[in-house]
Amino acid sequence: MLPVVDKQLLHTETWLTHRLAELDGHTHQPLLRRFATWHLLPTLRARAARQPLTASARQFTGEQFAHARVFLAWLDERGLDLPRCGQADLDAWHATHPKSQRRALASFLTWAMNSHHISRLDLPALPRGNSAPLTQRRRLELIRRAATDDQMPLRARVTACLVLLYAQPITRIMRLTLDDISINDTEVRLRLGDPPCPVPEPFAALLLQLAESRANMNTAANPRARWLFPGQSARELLNAATIREELRLLDFPSGAAREAALRQLVLQAPAPIVAEMLGYTPQATTRQAAAVGSPWSRYAAGDHSK
Prior knowledge:
By secondary structure, this protein is mainly α. It is built from 13 helices and three strands.
């Protein structure tokens, strides 16, 4: 009898309410409230009316709001406000910020120009296509850094290793639980697909250390959480955008690293076997194997355990 409520839309509305409450009394709050109320939420509601929203749609909406806030603070540092922002200022922002932030800010700037909060300016074109591929040498350097750099946050080190060693997407990594980790005699295994993957040292020690000292476990709702990367409550896991941005700031290109890892893995083993162990579809790993000229590209898919 009740109307269907989109879970992702509800989460976004709640998240925006909290973020705006944090800005109560701040000079940027009225503008950011209008941006959220008259652009972000109507856009998301229109998408939800067509089909259920994905977690990535919710995350990108949050990034759009967050980077609008960061951009306004950046203008403050330059002694400017939005109406006085000129083309040179906009070009300076785009020249000093990564593509992900420029993409997230585009909707705010377009809305601000259409709403006459800023002069009509030219938005620099975003580069198209994928970034330069990560070489195997660079991948090994990043693995070594993640495994040995004690100055890096533990959760970032574990996430980086999961991307670089097992070609795991950040969104899938965030869904791992303590039950996915098993210890058989002296071997640590991690269930990413079937069968679970062996975890080599020193990454195994890092993984077990994270399992014993997870963040966000000091709230009343969280002691029972089984997530390896818990969020603020027992039902929530850590936002993928949070860890993705953390890796970016540490100079770990998660997208390029995952692709490089998958390329190397299908060179070392048949694509169907890689798919089974890492939770990929056989079609995805077979396409990657064909692209890199894997010697296993003719290996037939199916059950090879017999």
